[in-house]
Amino acid sequence: MEFPEIITRLPEATIPFPSSVVKTSVLQSENGQLIFFDVIQAVDLPPHSHKAQWGTVIHGQIELTIGGETRTYGPGSPYFIPSGVVHSARIPAGTKIIEFFEEKDRYKLK
Fold first, then answer.
1. Other C-beta atoms within 10 Å of 97: how many?
2. Distance CA 55, CA 10 (A)
3. What pLDDT score was predicted for residue 59?
4. Whole-angstrom distance, CA of residue 42 vs CA of residue 91
5. What's the rounded Cα separation, in Å, for the pair 23 and 75?
6. Nearest CA-CA partner of 77 in 55, 95, 94
7. For residue range 15-59, what is the model confidence (pLDDT) as tens digits?
8. Which of 5, 20, 61, 105 qualifies as a FRET site for 12, CA 20 to 30 Å off?
9. What's the burial of 33, exposed, middle or buried (CB within 10 Å: 0-12/13-18/19+)?
10. H or E, element range at 105
11. Ramachandran angles phi, psi of 97, nearest 5°
């Protein structure tokens, strides 16, 4: 499963992983950022926090620990991380996720 070209031609986000590990496509507005994540190689995100985040798995799965509670989300499963709550993630290769960040400048554009 691949994101279509209408998505992949969007600007990329500057994230702490090279595009050979995670590809991104960003829609940005004054109200936040919507990011399409295509995880090429497995990633582990260490515990961190920021403003609110909502996401859903399109393909694959994500193991999220939100406020000390760990759950695995599969295709069609939405999740919400409230503002300021510490969270971490394990994401296997091949996973595709759409996430909305409350911060309009969560990530800089490339």
1. 22
2. 18
3. 98
4. 6
5. 18
6. 55
7. 999 999 999 999 999 999 999 999 999 999 999 999 999 999 999
8. 61
9. buried
10. none
11. -135, 145
Coil vs helix vs strand at 14: coil
What's the one-letter identity of residue 25?
Answer: S
- What pTM did the predictor assign? 0.95
> 3-class secondary structure for 59-93?
ECCEEEEECCEEEEECECCEEEECCCCCEEEEECC
C-alpha 58/C-alpha 31 separation (Å) is: 23
N- to C-terminal Cα separation, the chain: 24
Q: How many CA atoms are closer than 13 Å to the CA of 98, on its beta-carbon side?
A: 12
Q: What angle do CA 52, 8, 56 make, to 5 degrees?
A: 35
Q: Are 84 and 11 in contact (CB under 8 A)?
A: no
Q: Measured between alpha carbons, how far is 81 from 38 in angstroms, rounded to an integer?
A: 20
